[in-house]
Amino acid sequence: MRMRTFLVLILAAFTAAQISAQSNALPFARGLYFAGAGHYSATDGGFDGQSVYLVDSGAEILVVPRINMGFGGGGLIGYRADNWAYEAGGSYRASGSSWLGQPYDTTSLGFTFDVQWLPLAATSLQPYLSAGLGISTLTVRNGSSGITVGDAQYYLGGFRFGVGLEAWATRRLFIRLQGIYRIDRVVSVQGADDTSRIDLSDPLNANGYELSLIVGYVVL
Question: Which of 216, 179, 202 is nearest to 53 (CA)?
Fold first, then answer.
């Protein structure tokens, strides 16, 4: 009898949670949203400030600098469901770097696709877990020396995992604090004298992290 009562209570609680998650009383609006983001990020791994890549049979040298932490920004477009959100975004970051003590300017242009799981849909303050994919291009200004001196290009791709906290100011306006750890690899490089990318047989570790402040608005 006690077991039956316990099972009935569990079923009732589960049903109530489902009804709550599907009701219009949720503190947010489902639908398409746009957001702007500010990032503070770092790239570590094999970017050690000492290594080089020799391309074109050694005729061209690409430096692998140590990259400083830097600020960047970007935009997001996403869709918010009850306990899930799906979003794609683009970002840009400019930061300093150094190779054997010599300073270089670096920039990064990236694109991401992330999925968030938000288990506490009935509250206006919602912690979440995030996972996704990202690709980016890292440019080292004048980091390539051969027949000419020009930019060195590094092409990255990998996985993203993170946690965050989302606060709904209104049913359409939200603010989000997010931390992401990136598992990235440089899969190809390109120097100033190259007409095409050169694939790497041993991809370079380019792991890093980013802290973000995101403000978004549900439009549809």
Answer: 202
Dihedral over Cα of 59, 64, 65, 69: its sign:
positive
The matching CATH number, chosen from 2.40.128.110, 3.40.50.300, 3.30.70.580, 2.40.160.20, for 32-218 is 2.40.160.20
DSSP 7-32: HHHHHHHHHHHHHHHHSTTSSS--EE
Distances (CA, A) of 202 to 46, 198, 199: 11, 12, 9
Contacts of 2 (CB under 8 A, 6+ apart): none
Residues in Cβ contact with 18 at an 8 Å cutoff, skipping those fewer than 6 apart: none
Q: How many CB atoms lie within 10 A of CB 22?
A: 11
Statement: residue 9 has pLDDT above 60:
no
* Predicted confidence (pLDDT) per residue in 141-169, tens digit: 999 998 889 999 999 999 999 999 999 99
pTM score: 0.84
Ordered by start, the domain boundaries in the chain are 32-218
Per-residue pLDDT reduced to its tens digit, 163-199:
999 999 999 999 999 999 999 999 999 999 887 899 9
